[in-house]
Design brief:
279 residues, alpha+beta, Immunoglobulin-like, 2 domains, 4-stranded mixed sheet, 7 helices, 37% strand, binds iron/sulfur cluster
Length: 279
């Protein structure tokens, strides 16, 4: 049987919130039995968008991470719920049955992704349903995916083997694999959110004026092993991305024709702009 997954490209998300708003439009004041009851007007973010700023001025970037329920194949919420109140359907979607789940507040804390919200008024846990009521009516995508203007959200179905091939071909990753929940939401360019960079600018003094150096060779070493090489652009800038946060000491070697080689040590905690390196 074909099963659904979300594919989310972090680099393509512009934080326009169309996905968040279309989810609100679909679910506020609308019950879709037996899958969901109405979402309250305030306080729930079934499509939650996290934000992260990296680096220091002037080398700064911002990434946005849309996070719906991950529709996990090994879902802690299913294990926590009593009476089968949370279940996985044949097409991979995890559903909270609003009748059976009434009063079971501890389902909220069972989700390691923080994707479940508590409706105090109705005493029920709620979350993204992948718009299963629309899929049952023949829709090919949920409202959030339909409304995304940049293509950051995709909705794909297939047999397990076909999905595995897509994940491999597109180099997709789940969020927090260490939770071992086996999510059905896969990310592209996740490094923009959960990894870090070392960047900087190479310059020289010429007749009392600071001038950037285009074409300088910058080599990054970790424990004497060469990790990456980069050539500075016409602003003298270089950037090594997709590095692990808190990954310890690195060495930068900068060389350019007719200048002495320069070495810089970096203790990498989070993204860092080492500033202007004068040769
Ligand atoms: Fe359950 Fe949370 Fe996984 Fe969604 S993300 S299936 S709510 S454990
Ligand atoms: Fe990002 Fe698309 Fe959502 Fe806009 S609609 S916030 S681009 S995922």
């Amino acid at each position: 049987m074909d099963k659904w997954i979300f594919i989310i490209d972090v680099e393509a998300c512009e934080d326009c919130n169309n996905c968040f708003l279309s989810c609100k439009d679909e679910y506020i004041d609308n019950d879709f039995p037996p899958y969901s009851i109405a979402q309250p007007k305030h306080g729930q973010r079934w499509m939650n968008i996290e934000r992260k700023e990296r680096g220091q001025c002037p080398m700064v970037d911002v990434a946005f991470l849309p996070t719906p329920c991950m529709h996990c194949d090994n879902a802690p919420c299913i294990k926590k719920a009593k009476n089968g109140a949370v279940y996985k359907s044949n097409n991979g979607i995890v559903i909270i049955d609003p009748d059976k789940a009434r009063g079971q507040k501890d389902i909220v804390d069972a989700c390691p992704y923080g994707a479940i919200w508590w409706n105090e008024n109705k005493q029920v846990a709620q979350k993204c349903t992948m718009c299963v009521h629309l899929l049952n009516d023949g829709w090919k995508k949920p409202r959030c995916v339909q409304s995304c203007p940049t293509g950051a959200l995709r909705f794909v179905s297939g047999e397990d083997s076909a999905i595995a091939q897509i994940i491999k071909d597109e180099k997709l990753e789940p969020l927090h694999p260490e939770y071992n929940a086996k999510p059905r939401v896969y990310y592209k360019n996740l490094y923009r959110f959960n990894r870090c960079f070392i960047g900087g600018t190479v310059a020289v003094q010429k007749k009392g004026v600071t001038d950037c150096v285009e074409g300088a060779m910058v080599t990054l070493y970790k424990d004497s092993e060469k990790v990456y090489e980069a050539i500075t652009d016409n602003y003298g800038d270089f950037k090594f991305d997709n590095l692990e946060e808190n990954s310890g000491k690195y060495r930068l070697e900068i060389s350019a024709r007719s200048y002495d080689k320069k070495t810089i040590e970096v203790d990498l905690i989070a993204s860092i702009n080492v500033g202007t390196i004068m040769l």
